Amino acid sequence: MEFLVVSNIALWIGLIVMAIINYALIRQIGVLYERVAPAGALAMNQKLEVGQKAPELSLQALANQLVNIGGSRDKSQLIFWVSPDCPICKTLLPALRSAAAAESEWLDLVLASDGKQHDHQAFAKAQDLGGFPYIVSELLGKTYGVAKLPYAVLIDEQGNVASMGIVNSREHLDSLFEAKERDVASIQEYMAGR
């Protein structure tokens, strides 16, 4: 009988200790969650700044249509630089298509790159990118200061650069939209001012 009482007391003590440990772990996870801010797209650009007028260009896309970049328009414009040789670009294309469809009420997607026209036509066909304007222009990349891929610039309806940065994941892509919505240069800036 004494053994049952002692074991029951030991089990209750163990249960209370486990509850305290679980509470401490949950509290620590909460503290870490507050310290580790979401990572947004890294804005590395020496030619453009968020808030300035986006350079206006009219360029021909692969499908021979003329595409106007920048300037005032009904919808925002996301210019997304890709390359047939970029493995990250290829993995991001499904997320990019999904985001363009989900945000189509306020966003137009334009794909951009430089290099040989033929390589990009084959890439666009293989990746089923025919639904989006695809511009192959070295001038566009140089004008917008694109040095690394995949890179994106979000231009708002007034023709201003709303956000920009290197996009390596869907989270980075969404951070561009979030930065525009919150009227900040980047998610990092938003978290610093919070």
Automatic annotation (TrEMBL):
<feature type="domain" description="Thioredoxin">
    <location>
        <begin position="48"/>
        <end position="189"/>
    </location>
</feature>
<keyword id="KW-0812">Transmembrane</keyword>
<keyword id="KW-0472">Membrane</keyword>
<dbReference type="InterPro" id="IPR013766">
    <property type="entry name" value="Thioredoxin_domain"/>
</dbReference>
<dbReference type="Pfam" id="PF00578">
    <property type="entry name" value="AhpC-TSA"/>
</dbReference>
<dbReference type="GO" id="GO:0016209">
    <property type="term" value="F:antioxidant activity"/>
</dbReference>
<dbReference type="InterPro" id="IPR000866">
    <property type="entry name" value="AhpC/TSA"/>
</dbReference>
<dbReference type="GO" id="GO:0016491">
    <property type="term" value="F:oxidoreductase activity"/>
</dbReference>
<feature type="transmembrane region" description="Helical">
    <location>
        <begin position="6"/>
        <end position="25"/>
    </location>
</feature>
<keyword id="KW-1133">Transmembrane helix</keyword>
<protein>
    <submittedName>
        <fullName>Methylamine dehydrogenase accessory protein MauD</fullName>
    </submittedName>
</protein>
<dbReference type="InterPro" id="IPR036249">
    <property type="entry name" value="Thioredoxin-like_sf"/>
</dbReference>
